Amino acid sequence: MYDSGLGHPWLNPEGTFKVFCKADEGLCLAVRGGALFKDVRFSLHIKDEEGKPVFSLINKATGLAVQHSLGPFRPVKLVKFNPEDFDESVLWTESGHLGRDFGRIRMLHNFDMVFDALPHDKDGGGVRDGTTITLTEWAEGGTQSWKILYWSDEANKTCGGLFYEPTCRIYCKADESCSLTVRQGAVCLAPTDADDEYQHWIQEKRLGNRIRDLEGYPAFVLVNRVTGDAIECSPGQANPLKLKAYNPCYLDEFTLLSKGRDMGDGFGFIHMLRSISLNFSVFLVDKDHGGVRNDTKLMLSDWNLGLEDNLHFQWKIAPW
């Protein structure tokens, strides 16, 4: 089970957000002086056609949520936000990770209709204090390109505000001399080196307070401290592990992991939260001799269908 949104600061640890467009980064979305929350209670279960999770924007001072407008060039509206009521008219999606790049804020079921800061002076752009927010068709304009950042500068740093969290080392029992790292965008193993910053991972555990796998083990996300990317899993046998820009404001089911029972000395299976039969393993480059070596890449595999020797499936997450 999972719950989130207002009143649950574990999703938005630094509190409120500022939303601003590329046309003038000095002006922020407001209901005259209010800050915004992002409510993401439906983001794990409801996605747009591109797979992007939904969210709502709620003004902190008034409790009003930004609602779809009645049509092109009509101002967006404000409606009382009810966290217990499913209302598609207050659901939006981002075209990308708007904490990193400018992009579109769009209606859930109509990608063509996006946030636009309606210019007061169409010849010169004219974005200024009091500019009305409307929905218009995407035309790659600066008034249609937005960012959503925490008000706290610390929270906007790499790793979504987790930069100062203690880091951990991740390694498998088949070869404890190697640790998980990132090489040229790939998740792989390398000889353990504490000075290799890419071997430092942050285990984001806050989600485990609310989300557990079928066996009751808590969810977590593994975030690389240097890149700010999370390990992403793809369902299916022998699919390589990938990296994905970590956005702490969303629950992304493909980055949610859990670790099974302790099989001795802290080692155990690391698997997808949604499919605990698929576990971290290594691509064996030499099946006769185990094959773990420098740059060995990781994949998902069902250990029941894999090797007789399951040391390649047993992992430990330990503090540096």
Automatic annotation (TrEMBL):
InterPro entries: Ricin_B-like_lectin_EULS3-like (IPR040249), Ricin_B-like_lectins (IPR035992). This is Uncharacterized protein.
